[in-house]
Write a structure and sequence with these properties.
The complex is a heterodimer of chains A (156) and B (312). With 156 residues, chain A is α+β, with helices and mostly antiparallel strands. Chain A is built from two helices and 13 strands. Chain A has helices at 2-24, 54-57; strands spanning 36-40, 48-50, 59-63, 67-72, 83-85, 90-92, 99-100, 106-108, 117-122, 128-136, 138-139, 144-145, 154-155. In chain A, strands 1, 2, 3, 4, 9, 10 and 13 form a seven-stranded antiparallel sheet that branches. In chain A, strands 5-6-7-8 form a four-stranded antiparallel sheet, with no helix packed on it. With 312 residues, chain B is mostly helical. Chain B contains eleven helices and no strands. In chain B, helix 6 (122-131) packs across helix 7 and helix 8 (172-194) packs antiparallel against helix 11 (248-279). Chain B starts with a helix and ends in a 33-residue tail after the last helix. The chains are: A alpha+beta (156), B mainly alpha (312). At the A-B interface, loops of A face helix 9 of B.
């Protein structure tokens, strides 16, 4: 009985140490670009693809006649950043060649679904607030399309 | 004896001291003689014998002893079957893999003298190594090519072991250790990929860690991942990168895994692997070859069953 208690304590101690060891690899504070950022007024964007926030926040702002939405610039195949090619009117991923049209919908290459769209909001001052940690996806394989949900676009 | 003591005692304290001094003179002479002899033949001195405990004679016993009594050699068998050294059968790929690991450890440690695992300095240090550090380009390329070769050698070793059926009884356990070692080799290669912090490595690690998103249970996009509450901020990819993007933390983590953790784990498994090769009956070879003179008269006409050595 006493032996079992002592072994129990040793295993418990080692087990808790293992959990602490594993938890250690998940940092609490991150020094990464903020996923929530302000991109200015809707009127600042003309029809088409806006690349101003690509380098800082990994996002394209797309203005269409009736809506504004923000494409999160991550290829849905394996996560590289595609390039916007204005001459060909498409996004092209340099890693494995996935191609997306000007709305970020895949039409060539290995990408399984359109690029995700970030959450957009209007703040009280009328500026657009984007949150790339909340993404809306259109996955035909899973039969999910969130592109028309509230927050996936701003009507203009 | 008693008489002698009595005689000594009879001389008193002064006499005994004088006797001791004369004795000492003799012993010093003898010791001096020994030391001069030792200089002439250092291998006979006590210091020499304390370092090299086994006399080096060209006898089978001494050859075996020199392997057994050396910490670096003792993992290796004292005697190897004559068939086990047939390159036609073994390809020598396991040994070559180990040799490449030694080369990589040596060149890798030297590279560490000039490399800083930080976003500002990493790529600059690579350019510095390539262009200005004496022999830096040679070192970096030795490390790079040895790494490529090690991957190739590991696969060829595995291929040979598979083709010769050397994974079968009694070597099942060692095959499993070998598979682990192969995974560790691939992980070493993968973590080393990011360290130059160039476009190639950066996107390769982006792609590689994106695959980790699809890990069952532990990845945010993997089966049951979302059900278990996985997000890009708490899944296995996050733990690998130390963040949600491939950034400074990821570089530092790759560096530590590459230079310390994985080589250490791999070394332990390597020791186990080599030890088990011995314990499982030596390197598996073709059916043991017998010289004409070794065949016993009564077995001369019996059929020979060919099977890899060590198999029961």
């Amino acid at each position: 009985m006493r032996r079992r208690v002592i072994w129990g304590m040793i295993y418990g101690y080692l087990g808790i140490n293992l959990l602490m060891f594993l938890r250690f690899f998940f940092p609490r504070a991150l020094y990464e670009p903020n996923t929530i950022f302000n991109i200015g007024y809707p009127a600042d964007f003309s029809i088409g693809i806006d690349q101003r926030f690509l380098m800082t926040n990994r996002a394209w702002v797309v203005r269409e006649p009736d809506r504004i939405f923000v494409i999160f610039a991550r290829c849905t195949h394996l996560g590289c950043t595609p390039e916007w090619k204005p001459a060909e009117n498409k996004f092209k991923c340099p890693c494995h060649g996935s191609g997306y049209d000007s709305e970020g919908v895949n039409f060539e290459g290995p990408a399984p679904r359109p690029m995700d769209r970030a959450k957009v909001n209007i703040d009280p001052t009328g500026k657009i607030v984007v949150d790339t940690s909340k993404l809306f996806m259109d996955d035909p394989r899973a039969g999910v399309n969130q592109f028309n949900d509230t927050g996936a676009y701003l009507p203009v | 004896m008693a008489e002698e003591n009595g005689e000594k005692n009879g001389k008193g304290l002064f006499g005994r001291v004088r006797q001791d001094i004369t004795d000492l003179k003799d012993t010093i002479k003898e010791k001096g003689k020994d030391e001069i002899e030792g200089l002439k033949e250092p291998e006979k001195s006590q210091v020499f014998r304390s370092i090299f405990r086994v006399k080096h004679d060209e006898t089978p016993r001494n050859r075996a002893l020199s392997v057994l009594s050396n910490v670096f050699f003792h993992l290796h068998p004292a005697k190897v079957n004559r068939d086990a050294v047939k390159y036609k059968f073994t390809w020598g790929m396991g040994g070559i893999t180990f040799y490449l690991f030694i080369v990589l450890t040596f060149t890798g440690v030297l590279l560490m003298f000039y490399y800083h695992p930080s976003k500002v300095q990493a790529f600059r240090d690579i350019l510095y190594l390539e262009n200005d550090v004496p022999f830096g380009k040679l070192l970096r390329n030795m490390h790079r090519w040895a790494a490529h070769l090690m991957i190739i050698a590991v696969w060829l070793h595995m291929f040979r072991v598979f083709l010769t059926g050397s994974y079968k009884r009694p070597r099942e356990f060692n095959w499993c250790i070998g598979v682990l070692l192969m995974v560790l080799t691939l992980l070493l290669s993968f973590t080393g990929y990011l360290l130059p912090d160039d476009q190639l490595g950066f996107w390769a690690v982006t792609v590689g860690t994106n695959m980790a998103r699809a890990t069952p249970l532990l990845g945010t996009e993997g089966p049951f991942g979302a059900l278990l509450g996985m997000t890009p901020y708490n899944d296995v990819r996050f733990a690998l990168l130390g963040g949600s993007i491939v950034d400074a933390n990821a570089l530092l983590r790759a560096y530590i895994w590459h230079c310390i953790a994985i080589p250490l784990i791999a070394s332990i498994f390597m020791a186990l692997h080599f030890w088990r090769v011995r314990k499982d009956g030596g390197i598996s070879g073709p059916a043991p070859v017998m010289l004409e003179s070794e065949i016993k008269e009564e077995n001369r006409n019996r059929p020979v069953i060919l099977r890899p050595s060590g198999m029961v």
